[in-house]
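Checklist before submission:
- one chain only
- standard amino acids only
- sequence pasted in full

Submission:
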Amino acid sequence: MRSGERNKTPKSVTERTDLIFSAFEGDGRPLTFSDIARRTGLPKTTVYRTVIQLADLDWLRRTDRGFTLSDRIFRLVSAVPARIELREAALPFMQDLFEATHETVHLAVRNGAHALYVEKIVGRRQVTALTKVGGLMPLHCTAVGKVLLANADAETQATVLAANLVSHTSATIHTASAMRAELQKIRDAGTAYDREEAARGLVCVACPITSPEGAVIGAISVAGGVQRFRPDQVSTAVRTAAFGINRSLTMRALRADSTASEN
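Returned file contents:
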């Protein structure tokens, strides 16, 4: 339970629901009924009843290990104005990448310890349904995720590296020391690769997208099958698309400033 709330028992459904959603902040792992009760301080019977209702309404998702926030939550979050603007700025360049490669193009932002997929153009030769708009993937095993993690604040990096870096394949980087070295290479090169680290047979290349102030706010990538797709051969195209999105965001900001000054 958050500071200031420990000494009072939430009375309304809204307060209880707020506490339960807040329990999922942090590591992103599935939570059991006991985990949620411990984090919120709510009675287990209240937790059970509320969590079941939220799952039935598709706000929470049941897994073998407990409950997670559902894709419905993240679709709602991805609709906030800043992300709408990012998506609008990125779509023309994503389409150009798709036309040039015929492979799957992703746009993602960071959400805690995960990459949240804001937009996706499915390749003509799709090899996996691993990702979807509104879906989440861990930062440490995806190209967009590693770009976002490499440019995240020190606290976020420390939190992710201190957690269990789950091996999704034998190629997944699963030690903190190896991941630190990988993140440094990504910062130096401005490009990240997924070499079958999230799923066998799938490779990917990603580049960062920056705000007009220079902060990394997203990532764009191209993914394809390992037998036919060579990420290094399209890295320049991905980088060019990222630069184009950066320029578009800057021009939008300048137009907004100009309009504001005229009013």
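Reviewer check: The chain has nine helices and eight strands.
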